Amino acid sequence: MSEKISVIVWNEYRHEQENPAIAAIYPTGMHATLAAALRETASPLPGARALDLGTATLDEPEHGLSAARLDACDVLLWWGHKAHAEVSDAVVERVQRRVLEGMGLIVLHSGHFSKIFRRLMGTHCSLKWREADEKERLWVVEPSHPIAAGLPEHFELPYEEMYGERFDIPTPDELVLLSWFEGGELFRSGCCWQRGHGRVFYFRPGHEAYPTYHDANVQRVIANAVQWAAPRVRLADRCPNTAPLEALSPKSLSFGRVGMLQEQGDIA
């Protein structure tokens, strides 16, 4: 395993190119802002590793996620919104295979409706939403979790899009963060799962119209999540016909053979 964690920040990168107000918040795209934040945000976790950072966007060939590039990736961050349907099924299959082998996946905000997240969850991943410039208060409900390292008991974002329950996801293996919104809704905002040999983290904040990814606490959560999601093993999925470890005693007729003969009427 490399001393550094190889990270790709993937972004749809459409809003920033089409909307001047959003471009003013993220002049070089959310992916560049997130990558810069990861370079500058040291995780307080013991044994935290340095990062080898890169970015990729939807309109690059193979969405910037070629087989060779994903093969070398340890943790993939995913932000998408208006162009989920444009993501190639072949690339989704490629990402899923790497997660099952051990690669970490961090899904951000409206990535809840991405093809890859819905495939890994096996549910619709639907939710309530409202864009009304309202305050979000995020509570750390599992302060001993590595993703919560260095965070206060709660922190606030003055403006965010509301996501509300019910969030149609499998029950998280671990729930780290819970959001309250000014309008009264609650939402499971920091959710962890194991899928195959890989770890998946969903983190709710990050609406494109607000400077959420410039917030120091949000950056801390993502930096910690990269460390947490980094692979511990890499094991390709196989289904081999394997030889026995011990010598098998000789048998005149196997149970499987007996069943087959009974079906054929050769024995009673």
What assembly state would you assign to the polypeptide chains in this entry? single chain
- The overall strand count is 9
Order of helices and strands: EHHHEHEHEHEEEEEHH
Beta-strand portion reads 25-35%
Write the CATH architecture name of the domain at 5-122 and 188-229. 3-Layer(aba) Sandwich
CATH superfamily of the domain at 5-122 and 188-229: Class I glutamine amidotransferase (GATase) domain
* Strand line-up across the major sheet: 2-1-3-4-9-8-7-5-6
* Helicity level: 25-40%
The name CATH uses for the topology of the domain at 5-122 and 188-229 is: Rossmann fold
Q: Structural class of the secondary elements?
A: alpha/beta
The end-to-end distance, rounded to whole angstroms, is 58 Å
How would you state the average pLDDT, rounded?
94
The CATH class of the domain at 5-122 and 188-229, by name, is Alpha Beta
Work out the helix count.
Answer: 8
Radius of gyration: 22 Å
Low-confidence stretches: none
What does the largest sheet look like?
9 strands, mixed
What characteristic shape results from the CA principal axes? Answer: globular
Report on the architecture of this protein.
There is one protein chain. The protein has 268 residues and is an alpha/beta fold. It contains eight helices and nine strands. Strands 2-1-3-4-9-8-7-5-6 form a nine-stranded mixed sheet. The longest helix has 14 residues, at 216-229. The N and C termini lie far apart (58 Å).
Which features characterize this protein?
268 residues, alpha/beta, Rossmann fold, nine-stranded mixed sheet
